[in-house]
Write a structure and sequence with these properties.
Number of helices: 3
Oligomer: single chain
Shape: elongated
Number of strands: 0
Structural class: mainly alpha
Distance between the termini: 59 Å
Number of domains: 1
Largest sheet: none
Strand content: under 5%
Radius of gyration: 17 Å
């Protein structure tokens, strides 16, 4: 790896699946809040570590959506 591009900062937890859950208001890919995503580049290493430590517990905040608009239309048509 080229030394010029090596960085000592904590890598982003982004998994390139950027969709914000409408009720939980967190990214379904990395589980960060919108505010955390926006501030990531300005956060200190300690702040990033705190966010990363909180991510595993946030998975439970994501309830499975039940079909959204397409299911609602199908129910209305029945």
């Amino acid at each position: 790896m080229d030394e010029v591009w090596r960085r000592d900062e904590i890598a982003s937890p982004c998994v390139k699946m950027c969709v914000i859950h409408p009720e939980a208001r967190i990214c379904i890919g990395c589980h960060r809040r919108i505010e955390e995503i926006a501030a990531w580049s300005r956060m200190t290493a300690v702040e990033r570590e705190e966010v990363i430590a909180a991510l595993p517990a946030r998975g439970g905040l994501l309830r499975q959506r039940r079909g959204g608009r397409s299911r609602a239309r199908a129910r209305a048509a029945s």
